[in-house]
Design goal:
The complex is a heterodimer of chains A (273) and B (225). Chain A has 273 residues and is α/β, with parallel strands linked by helices. Chain A has helices at residues 28-31, 38-46, 63-72, 128-139, 199-210, 229-235, 244-247, 254-266; strands spanning 32-36, 52-53, 56-61, 78-86, 106-111, 114-122, 142-143, 148-156, 173-178, 196-198, 214-222. In chain A, strands 1-4-5-6-3-8-11-9 form an eight-stranded mixed beta sheet, sandwiched between helices. In chain A, strands 2-7 form a two-stranded parallel sheet. Chain B has helices at residues 54-67, 100-111, 141-150, 168-182; strands at 10-12, 27-28, 30-35, 40-45, 73-80, 94-98, 118-119, 155-162, 190-191, 198-199. In chain B, the strands form four sheets. A four-stranded mixed beta sheet of chain B has the order 5-8-6-7, sandwiched between helices. Chain B has a two-stranded antiparallel ribbon with strand order 1-2. A two-stranded antiparallel sheet of chain B has the order 3-4. The chains are: A alpha/beta (273), B alpha/beta (225). At the A-B interface, helix 4, strand 9, strand 10 and helix 5 of A face strand 1 and helix 3 of B. Strand 10 of chain A pairs antiparallel with strand 1 (10-12) of chain B, so a sheet runs across the interface.
Chain lengths: 273, 225
Amino acid sequence: MATFFGEILPVISRAVDDDDDDESFENLETYVKIKWKKEAQEEMELTKDKKLQANAFVLAVGPAATGFTQTYVTHKNYEIIGAMFCGMKEDDVNTFGQMSPTDKTCYIYRKCDYPSALVCECNYDIRPEYAHSFVNQLMSCLNLCEGHVVIFGSTFTSEYKSDVPTSDMNPPFMRALKTASFLGTPMAPYLEQPNVATGLPAQMLTYCHIHKLNAVLYMCYTDSIHLDFATLKTFQPLIESTPVKYMREENKKASETLKKIVDLHTKHSTLYM
Amino acid sequence: FIYHDSILPLVGNDPYAHPEADVCKLVTACEVYESKLHQLVIIQQRAPFVKGKMSSFRRWLTGWVKENKFEKLVILSSMHAHERLDIQLQGPQFRYISTPDLEAENKERFTHDVLKWIPLEGRPSLEDPEGSLYLPGGGIAKSLFEDCSKENIPAIVVLVFCAEGDNAQDAVKLAYNLNLWMDLIDFKPKYDLDGKTIIKPASTWRVPSSWRLLFGTAVDQTLFH
């Protein structure tokens, strides 16, 4: 399709054709792999259903959400017990040593003094096609019956449709969706139709909804391409949300940590400096 | 729910709620609805398929249809308007294709004055001058229909010709024709299952709130200041 300015753009169509069996994503089931630390695996073996008991689970997807959990939750008193890898080949060596917050990591943390509180920080850009496998592999190792799940994610305001113009909405802003089993009121307004959430956060919320788990999804709509203070600050009130309020760790150097995280991400965007 | 790895993930708030309501009733990528009154089960898929997984879904679906012994499968679909044959350019834009057993059972009703349904014309090609089933833009409708024919599941595809864009009217046309045949939504009062309560008739088709803002948020007028 040619635009007014003469550039050629690909046509996106909602209509689908039948002949797609030639292309396929690499074997979906083996593309995503979860690896647990030895101690965690031994613990799982000891339980009846071979799962880790979890009363509180936080899934943070994307740099804004993981920046928030790193600053206010996992910065101390948490140990890494597992990791998820996307696209690793069978003979790759992987260790838990990756250090930079901008690395493509997806670690699972456990609170040292509250072992049934788990946080999964996914800095990776997991494609929606792999979300099903990701969630299934992760949740098949966790026993969350009575527990609370909270999912943090972020996306662009260009994805948000409303009668009100975007500039009047004062981005960044937060919206929430919850499963039927969650009887409380989330700390953000509900996401209005016709807006929907997709990708890994949606897959996790769907899983929780179908399995009747208490879960809330908080989605931050931001107009900044790179991570900025305002976006991180939008998450801040959520440290009082269930179950984060039981899992948080006081961080006196919170503003410094936030600044470091923002700086790491802005390094890539300072094209003209 | 249908929780299958061939469907991309999606969650949202209830599209059938009152627009002013402030509650959260989660909907997911593929849900199953049932009406005991009409002896009907509806699968609504809101998210696209994962590329390469359509056949996996079709296999699962035909297995499920057989296992639950459904009398027939009705596939709602559409076809690219720009692929129409000359004779299809004018006249009703609604077509159907059905397996031979359903065709025999319903032939009279379909050709009757009220419905006047036209079967989809075959597309002649070099391999098949008689014309074969051709449904571009129909998603899995064609292959699903062919799978059903092989498995002896009575199936019918009902479709409209439409172009990319705001297809709300096309959807209403499809629903209207389906309703003429299956008599699902009444535009006159009718008795409920217990034989006593009267169901109020619908006055018109209701548009769900998820159809709003098809083309996104209105342009921000501050751009032009």
